[in-house]
Fold these 4 entries.
Entry 1:
Amino acid sequence: MTEWTLSRALNQALRDALAEDERVLVFGEDVGVSGGVFRVTDGLQAAHGDRRVFDTPISESVIVGAAVGLAFAGWRPVVELQFDAFSYPAFEQVVDHVAKMRMRTRGRVDMPITIRIPSFGGIKGKEHHGESPEVYYAHTAGLKVVVPSSALDGYALLRHAIADPDPVVVLEPKARYWAKEAGELDADAPGIGSGRVLRDGDDVTLVAYGSMVARVAAAAEQLADVGVEARVVDLRSLSPLDDELLRRSAEETGRVVVVHEAPRHAGFGAEVAARTMELAFDSLAAPIARVTGWDTPYPPASLEDGYLPSVDRIVAVAKETVAY
């Protein structure tokens, strides 16, 4: 059985998409010759040429704007915006053009654009290198947003994103790029709009996405040691959300804790909590709890461990929710 890192699995997804569809283009800052900051595009230019895998100027708005024009011309652009906070200069292009073009043209034009963004913290990076931009994109009607948490899932989600006729933002958790997973890559694995249960349990549901999934899984192990059986739900897809999975998990466990590393105020956990309440209010035995980052700008590296939700914090909130 082959062992994959998330970085290598994403590279294979791009490699396979380029080989199977000559309309696929990969471009962005340093994705060509150097193979990307996180080596996700390593070797792609050598394999497919510099007309299909190429470097761009350091201008995120130009990168996304060019993708819109190429989509009009029938191409399927896959762009990389090098770091989470680096994507903000392109936000106007994403919101005003990428997300709205299908409606603006009354469905006559597809926007099969995949926007890859290395995201979130956990690598002790400098300022602008540890943001959580998911709410900005998930709130934008016309965009689909996915967040893989593991290598095999990263491959599947990226393949689905590239094949989709609508624009998809793929937020890749930087802290998971080197995490290993054994198994076989499957482009037909569940795609956009589907979450998954990674561990079953009857006492409480722990909901997370991206790098927080691994911490929630570790918390579930600790909870099991004290007799609390936690169900672990990996959202995978933030827009659209898997409403059925949220409803079923709330009905079957009666208690829900949502975990993410973004600030608490208006964070994505608020949407998950509201959606779950609307779907399964009569089944809830306790208020839906959230474990999040703090309502401050992302801290310097020396303070990162105190900012991110820890396993201990998740365990403590889960125990409080079960005891309610």
Note: The chain has a mean pLDDT of 97.
Entry 2:
Amino acid sequence: MIDPITIGAAFALAKSTIAGVQEAIQLGKDLHECSGDLIKFFDLHATVEKGANHDKAKASNSEMAQALESVMQAKGLRDARRKLKEQLIWSGQGDVWEAIEAEYNMVVANRKREEREAEAKAKLKRENLAETVNILFIGFVSILAAGFIGWGTFEFIMYKLRN
């Protein structure tokens, strides 16, 4: 679990990083020169999003304060991202933003597909294990039943031979 202090620090760092990138773009710097800061921003953005989705029961703030803080941080980062997109489009680098979004969508789709495949594989493994246990149980019960039938038959034959 990510603690609220780490989330707050990541949020502040993300805001300052994106402000630096936006200033660099305004000064006419190439986006390639800012790519490290952009990567840092999106990493921190992901950290804040993950932190907002985790249980914050140990935090000292009330639930309403935590909810308000999460919503405001998410809105601030959304606004910063929208502003970055607009700046890139206005500076003539809209194709770069489109390429970033396309790659992002592909990465997310691949990750979700891999998660679904892993979940399906785990489910299949559980089903196979349950089937194996079921077969072993039926086999054990069958062997016991056959043993009891054989023992009963043997006792019946011995009883008939004595009489």
Note: DSSP finds four helices and no strands in the chain.
Entry 3:
Amino acid sequence: MAAYSPLIRRLLICSLTIVVSRAITSPLLTLFVSDKLGLNQQDVGLLLGIAVFVATLLSLYGGYVIDRFEKRRLLILAMLSSAVGLVLLTFAENLYLTTLTLIVTETASSLFLIGSKAILSDNLPVGQRAKAFSLSYTLSNIGYAVAPMLGVLIAGFFASAPFLIAAAVAFFSMFLMTGIAKDPGAAPLIGQTQSFLKTLVTLKNDRTLIMFTAGCLLSTVVHGRFTFYLSQYLLTTGNPKHTMEIMAALLACNAISVVLLQYQIGRFLKREQLRYWIAGGTGLFIVGLIGFSLADSLVSWCMAMFIFTLGEMIIYPAEFLFVDTLAPEELRGSYYGAQNLAALGGALSPVICGFLLMHTPAPTMFYALSALAAIGGLLCFMSGRRVALLQN
């Protein structure tokens, strides 16, 4: 990270600390909300689903706001909102206020993600952006590999402590971004910024963006919440003890692979070849899914997970780099906000997979996901081809 400016270095560190703030509470959130409000797990799932759905839709406007105002200050506001929301969550007693608090924290997370991408694009040369996206993703996975275990250990002493610590991490992360001088080269083009309605019309008329976002949404059904459907499958075909053993090994395999290889793979991504990289990543997803359907031992599960993770390591930076290539400079935040709608695929994934597990033979789920991955990859490939033809 020494090669980057102070702004980029601090932004990358914030990417890690914000992920730690979220990941500390991730394994405890459903149980905590259930105990506080007296809800069953189905109702808690619905509550969290609503919060994620609303926050994802709001991220479209969040991208527009990022284009209009100084991005660094908006990131500080997002971190402050996340900290306040996590503290308020510990006082959760009312269903509606809890829902509002969850929406605030989820929206703040989306705003930070979109804003951080936009800052990386604004402040880095084209050739360094793929490596920076990959480095950010690597740091995020380090946070997700360590923080959940810490959260569980801390909760053993005091149930609300992980949420208060998460809030403190988010709050003190703000000071990493304060004290950094405003980059005059990244000043918002307010005089050229159009209204939100006109921005929506611009996004709607960009057929390439719509096609690519649709492809990303289908791809996100496959990789966005893969831990959910894998645990659903294992519980359907085995017992809880077996599920925990397999899932622990798979999560470790995924985290170690990303930490060791993500940055190295990101170095090889080229803007001119993105559609081929995405096609390759999609192919790895499909091979991994078929491997899951045939796995009958811990080793075979981990081999399939490694192949699947290779696809994830390609797709993640390639999607961001593609949007960076596609977006006009004055609408970069709006384009990232639109592409973030693909996160809805992660919300759909447990629903689709749960339905398939209930009404079809269990391995059918993986073949259906393979079909969705293939369609999503095809749409992304066609989007890349469309961009190449327009540039020529």
Note: The two ends are 35 Å apart (CA to CA).
Entry 4:
Amino acid sequence: MVTLRLPGIRSLKEKRSIVKSLLGRMRNRFNVSATEVDAHDNYGRAVLGIACVSGSGDYVEGQIQAVLRWIEEERPDLEILAADIELL
């Protein structure tokens, strides 16, 4: 899970627009499954669940790390507060 702080967001409509765009571009670029999993009604925060399936744990961890770097580079206005990576 990735917890993001969304500074300057003033409405849930604005939050949903940003999150929806971020998730769509993330799915297309990295071929991962991603959705908002918590803090739906908190317009200053978004909690995203990101999943990747592979036979290699190293590949999955690398993909998730690449997603995190991409978020930091692509959306410097968003702050990553926490990122928990769990391999199953």
Note: The chain has one domain: 2-83.
